[in-house]
Amino acid sequence: MKIVVAIKQVPARDSLLKVDKSGTWIEDADLSWEINEPDAYALEAGLQLRESAGGEVVVLCAGPDRATQTIREALAKGADRAIHIEMSHGASDPLALARTMAKALETEKPDVVLTGLQSDDLGYGQTGVVLAEVMGYPHATLVMSVETVSGGIRVKRELEDGWFQHVEMPLPALLTIQSGAAKLRYATLMGIKKAKSKEIRRVEAETASAAPSVRLERIYLPQKTKRSQIFEGTPQETARQLVEKLRFEARVI
Amino acid sequence: MTGVLAVLEQFEGKLHGMSYEALAAAQQIGAELGQPVYAAVAGAGLQQVAAAVAAYRLDKVHVVEHGLLADYTADAYTAALKQLIELHRPAYVIFPHTYQVRDFAPALAASLGRVLVSDVIAHRVENGALTLVRQLFQGKMNADVRFEGDGPHFASVQAGAFRSENAIKAESGGSATEVVTPVLEASRIRTKPLERFRESQRAVDLTAAERIVSVGRGIREVGNIALIEQLAEAMGAELAASRPICDNGWLPMERQVGSSGQTVAPKLYVAVGISGAIQHLVGMKGSKTIVAINKDPEAPIFEAADYGIVGDLFQVVPALIEALKK
């Protein structure tokens, strides 16, 4: 089974973000970067699927040079090889990105494409579904587990409010993986060593031919809409002030 | 190409709560753009749902009926709604940002060469042009987004961004409904949905709690949960958590607050070591008084909070337990 896992590199979770001069992206020169957490779960699901069904795991990542680091980490965790679509930062729209990814996968003909349910930067939560549409694959979102059955796969999907559902579909198919559904593995020393010699195929992103249907005008820090009272001082002082407010102002304790 | 179409979600003949919010959004945006407002609902056996939707002020309710829409599949919903949109050519299509919408709406928009602007939190109309606001970087940044070129333009609205009580009722007799029968073929529906199920009965009803103390990633280790338990006890509160804590098995799933867990609105909600990702915020932002304790002053949870302490929870929480005893 050929399993492609689409991953993205995003700013580390606790980064302090500033808007850059263009006003449409963040100052990203001094940030540290990591794999988009939902994609780490997609990678884990891909590695587990390979363990049960055999085959290979190919990592697909679109991003600038720095994404090589995240790709190497995925290879160190056990992916067999990678495709790096070289493009500037990830602020392109999901349809343009999905078309670029589909093009890069044309010769691969994967049986299963996995990705995280959303990115922690743009958060559109739809690149996977759009990629399925562009590739003509059936799909399922918020997948907790995958098993192979005769004629295809059976997945467990998460629905709202604590409900779940099994869904069956033929292969090839695309799945977006729910975060937290499995324990993430660490790279072993051997894995890190091996990763250095694994293949990374680099492809150039084509310049978009179709006119985009949405435009990001500007980004900005959210305005505080709610007036929150922030207490300052030692832990004892702040705790005392908070308790006083909760007792006598909000009257909730 | 004109009009604002709200695509509503129903399950077993009952509208999803967020459907009313999408309805309110479409009415509001339609009024500001000076365009007619429509609603569509898809499924099988929709007479009751159709009547419920027609109780709202709409220029037309499209009832998309087909046996193959009885059980939700992305393929059937995408095909049916694509036909409706191509027939009626609305300028804007608005969805509630539910799990089901996330499963098919991006594909529907892509099938028409468009991008869904997902999870919209606000909008404005200036000189007849619509600008939508959505969140980036887990709520740390906002973005203004505009549509380019011809419609249909697609957007989904975040839970709570529009208020269902603002949806305007029809004056009398209800709005006109029209049943549409899409052309669907069973052979083109590639996924086969099986029974829906729940994994466990819930023993804790967080929705009934007056006070909730909720813990997030900031707690770092399972052994530290006991500290938060003490705080909950000192406040007379139920213990809850954000998703990562339950995913790790540190607390049972039934204590999870957020879009995949429970939606709560207690008198007091204390978020400890929770950054406030939108998936968590939608589950608790209706709380009367919100307290945030977090070491990151930029954490989005402070945006939702009435009272906040920026600091190390391992110092603040013991001090708080002490202060509560006095």
How would you describe this structure to a colleague?
The complex is a heterodimer of chains A (253) and B (326). Chain A is an alpha/beta fold. Chain A has 2 domains: 2-204, HUPs (Rossmann fold); 222-253, no CATH class. Chain A is built from 6 helices and 13 strands. Chain A has a 9-stranded mixed sheet with strand order 9-8-7-10-6-1-4-5-11, with helices on both faces. In chain A, strands 2-3 form a two-stranded antiparallel sheet. In chain A, strand 7 and strand 8 form a beta hairpin. In chain A, helix 2 (67-76) crosses helix 5 and helix 3 (94-104) crosses helix 4 (127-135). With 326 residues, chain B is of the alpha/beta class. Chain B has 2 domains: 4-188, Rossmann fold; 206-325, Rossmann fold, CATH 3.40.50.1220. Helix content of chain B is 28%, strand content 29%. Chain B has helices at residues 17-33, 47-54, 74-88, 99-111, 225-235, 243-247, 278-281, 301-304, 313-325; strands at residues 4-8, 10-11, 14-15, 37-43, 60-65, 92-96, 116-126, 129-136, 141-147, 153-157, 177-180, 192-198, 211-215, 238-241, 268-272, 289-294, 307-310. In chain B, strands 9-8-7-10-6-1-4-5-11 form a 9-stranded mixed sheet, sandwiched between helices. Chain B has a 5-stranded parallel sheet with strand order 14-13-15-16-17. In chain B, strands 2-3 form a two-stranded antiparallel sheet. In chain B, strand 13, helix 5 and strand 14 (238-241) form a beta-alpha-beta unit. In chain B, helix 3 (74-88) packs across helix 4 and helix 5 packs parallel to helix 9. The longest helix of chain B has 17 residues, at 17-33. In chain B, 54% of the residues are buried. The chains are: A alpha/beta (253), B alpha/beta (326).
